[in-house]
Amino acid sequence: MSDYNSWLGIKDKKIQKKLKSLSDEQKIENFASPLAFGTAGMRGKMVMGSGGINEVTVTKLALSTAKYMLAHQKITCVVCYDTRKNSKLFAHIYAKVLSNNNILVYLFKKYAPTPLCVFATRFKKAQIGVMITASHNKREFNGIKIYNSIGIQIDNQTQQEISGYFNEADEVECYNNTYNLKLKNIVWLKDDVLKAFLDGDTDMTTKHLKIVYTPLNGTGYEGVEKILAQNKFKFFTPKSQKHPDPNFSTCPYPNPEFIEAFKQSVDLAKKVDADVIIATDPDADRIGVMIKSKDGYKKLSGNELGYIFLKFLLDNKKQEDGFVVTSVVSSPLVEKICNMENIPLYKTLTGFKSLGEKTHELVLSGKTPLLVFEESCGYIVRPNTYDKDGIYAALLVCQIGEWLKSHGSDFEKYLNDIYEKYGYLSALGDSIVFEGVDSLNVMNNVINSLRANPIKSVGDIKIQSKTDYLKDDTGLDKQNFIEYRAGKLQFIIRPSGTEPKLKIYLFYEDSDSVKAEQNANNIMEKLKEIINERQN
Predict the structure, then answer these.
(1) CB within 8 Å of 30: residues ≥ 6 apart
(2) Given this model, what pLDDT does residue 498 score?
(3) What's the pLDDT score for residue 496?
(4) Quick one: CA dihedral 115, 201, 108, 78, positive or negative?
(5) What is the total count of domains within the chain?
(6) Nearest CA among 274, 254, 275, 251 for reference residue 264
(7) Burial level of 393, CB count in 10 A (0-12/13-18/19+)?
(8) Sequence-ordered alpha helix ranges (H) in 199-280
(9) SS3 of 104, please?
(10) 87: Cβ–Cβ under 8 A, 6 or more apart, which residues?
(11) Tens digits of per-residue pLDDT, 473-510?
């Protein structure tokens, strides 16, 4: 890794100006921790330095990707980008570096969602797909996701190879040798790819569902609008969120997992009396949903939408060779539903790299996926797809809503019916965020403390068992998180793969939903206090 002084050797005057404008504090912070791969590619704040996503580090990663591709005789790549600040710039840098290394690049003419990038990689028979996006992160972030020819995020071995090239390279030399090159050997991708992506899903019967949809100023609008129009659904969209806005002015944290992202949409839903509100994140691979209820509009958790998808698909599209895939941090109620309905459930580690790999493995054995999902609002709801897709998930939400409305029901009643049949379980998610220059080290120290000195009790509840996924034999690959169980209580703590924060997944089962929620929330607060004490 180069330091600040070595970066002053960069020849590009624009970069020089940015470097010289940094304060002493920014110099320390921006060069403190070098970029590294997380659970979904490489992601960071758009700051100038070896720890940021910027022209220099993107060039270095692009060159590392090119070296990997050439070493494995891979000569075609799709490059796509979202609506974030600098995404188009970074995509063109990536394409420029790859194309100047004799790799044929299919480059999107304009911004596009991640599901379309994944589809295009297979559609064009490319060997690698690159998506410039920071997904649902705040506006200060950007990043790069890399996919294999099947449309699955690259496996650990590929990631390690690219990381090896990345860690060995001198970013200053990489940038000085490539920054003034021109694009060449480019095939521009246009609307024909989107048309092929949406082909085959058409139902022109009259629809009555009232829908509000927001792309949260991201890439989802065109795809969602076309797929819903093909199925004769109409929707309303908050005008302030329809078009790209790299500053996410009306939604500083464009994450459809959180209710704060829905403020504009709820206001509109009340005006038009919508049955459902749908939001996709900026790269449109995740989806969030709010439903009309007796108390206004209720936000569904990622798990709850998973229950609804699963129940509907079981009732309407279950096949003898069907299966469900979810991750170990998703709700245990899914396992209960699958057991009662006699459908195989497979659990993986977190992230759609793991989910996609397992799904593809099962498809190759002749089985058919019914639903693949993770609690963080990612879903695969159609065949021959191995990464989350918010566009087709949006269509399924509307199809379920229309079906319920035509049968005199609604989402709230349907969810309550699910709980009545399978039992109630409170599934909570929360995070502890670490700030400052040393945030990653502080986070790692906390998780190591929890590993060395396990939690013995939470309030009056004594922990009965602990599973360390990094050290214990779980039948899965090693991953850095810890699971605790105590009767009705189960919780998992793990570091985020993209940000300096510890994520907590807490599940509490009780036949009384009110008591379950109260107890779960109380336990979560006590648990956060215990974890925060480990920072001292």
Answers:
(1) 4, 22, 47, 48, 49, 50, 51, 52
(2) 66
(3) 81
(4) positive
(5) 4
(6) 251
(7) buried
(8) 221-229, 239-242, 263-272
(9) strand
(10) 81, 111, 132, 133, 142, 246
(11) 888 888 888 999 999 999 999 988 767 889 999 999 98
Nearest alpha carbon to residue 377 among 388, 385, 392, 366: 388
Q: Is 49 helix (H, G, I), strand (E, B) or coil?
A: coil
Q: How many whole angstroms separate alpha carbon 220 and alpha carbon 490?
A: 35
Q: Give a three-class secondary structure readout of 342-403.
A: CCCEEEECCCHHHHHHHHHHHHHCCCEEEEEEECCCEEECCCCCCCCCHHHHHHHHHHHHHH
**Per-residue pLDDT, 479:** 87
The answer to the question of residue 201 being in a domain is no
In this structure, the answer to whether residues 42 and 155 fall within a common structural domain is: yes
- The pLDDT of residue 440: 81
One domain for residues 32 and 135: yes
202 domain residue, yes or no: no
| Same domain membership, residue 316 and residue 399 | yes
Distance between CA atoms of residues 278 and 270, nearest Å: 14
Name the least confident of 23-27, 264-268, 448-452: 448-452
Q: How far apart are CA 113 and CA 95, in angstroms?
A: 17
Domain containing 281 — which CATH number?
Answer: 3.40.120.10
Q: Give yes or no: residues 40 and 127 share one domain.
A: yes
Q: Which domain holds residue 227?
A: 210-295
Q: Find the mean pLDDT for residues 382-396.
A: 95
| Residues 404 and 345 grouped into a single domain | yes
Q: Residues 453-484, buried b or exposed e (16+ Cβ, 10 A)?
A: eebeebeebeeeebeebeeeebeeeebbbbbb
The pTM score is 0.93
Helix (H) or strand (E) holding 507: strand 501-509
Q: Which has the closest alpha carbon to 111: 86, 77, 83, 145? A: 83
Tens digits of per-residue pLDDT, 333-344? 999 999 999 999
Residue 200 lies in a domain: no
Q: Is the pLDDT of residue 434 over 90?
A: no
Q: What is the crossing angle of helices 156-168 and 55-71, to 10°? A: 120
